């Protein structure tokens, strides 16, 4: 099978990576940012058009205050340090998730990243930040209900294709491949709508150990899969 157009990654295992080394969790998150840098470059080299990364979930606010603040700080650092390089490499940065309740300095940085890179066409990097699929779907339903209430859309018009246009991912292709590191085998509220037919690949390595080789390995596993989308594989149609 052809290589995936859109790869989405649940970057998990920073804490366990740190623990295994006797380091604080914050060190794991810092190492995780390095793995993210490497992975974005690797995906670019492999001509992957869309890369979505789960950076902070709507449930991650439940972590200790200091850890939440470390994660916010790392996002800011990543954008401040890497935006110029991403822009130079022709990467378009997009952000999904609820931005409403984020600190204003973070909102400004996210908007800056999107507006600076909006005309780039080499690769799309989607950062899922303060993202939760149930929250995204509920926000979409709210927008849709408002449109219906104002007479801008009729009930008959509400189909999956139309509903999708209210999601944060409107105009993005669905992920072909969802990778989760750290050995956990769950989606943790990531892209529940969009991953309906994604191939899921769970890898035992912790996120800070992820690199170009691991990415290539996941793509190889994906390529050996048979995607049917509820139909019959072409080679089996006549049987
Ligand atoms: C992923 O690593 C990073 C975020 C969720 C932000 P974790 O911090 O979840 O690491 P583990 O799962 O505790 O090892
Ligand atoms: C999912 O990982 C969120 C991110 C990677 C940003 P978690 O570590 O938060 O997920 P659970 O709690 O193990 O399901
Ligand atoms: Mg985790």
Blueprint of the fold:
Layout: E1 6-10, H1 14-20, H2 25-45, E2 50-57, H3 65-88, E3 91-96, H4 104-117, E4 123-131, H5 133-149, H6 160-164, E5 177-180, E6 199-202, H7 212-223
Parallel strand pairs: 1-2, 1-5, 2-4, 3-4, 5-6
Provide a descriptive summary of the structure in words.
By secondary structure, this protein is α/β, with parallel strands linked by helices. The chain has one domain (6-132, 175-223): Undecaprenyl pyrophosphate synthetase, CATH 3.40.1180.10. It contains seven helices and six strands, in the order E-H-H-E-H-E-H-E-H-H-E-E-H. The protein has helices at 14-20, 25-45, 65-88, 104-117, 133-149, 160-164, 212-223; strands at 6-10, 50-57, 91-96, 123-131, 177-180, 199-202. A six-stranded parallel β-sheet has the order 3-4-2-1-5-6, sandwiched between helices. Helix 1 (14-20) packs across helix 2 and helix 2 packs parallel to helix 3 (65-88). The two termini are 21 Å apart. The relative contact order is 0.20. Bound molecules: 3-methylbut-3-enyl trihydrogen diphosphate (IPE) (2 copies) and magnesium ion. One 3-methylbut-3-enyl trihydrogen diphosphate is lined by residues 11-16, 56, 60, 71, 182, 207. Residues 10-12, 54-57, 60, 184, 186, 188 line the site of one 3-methylbut-3-enyl trihydrogen diphosphate.
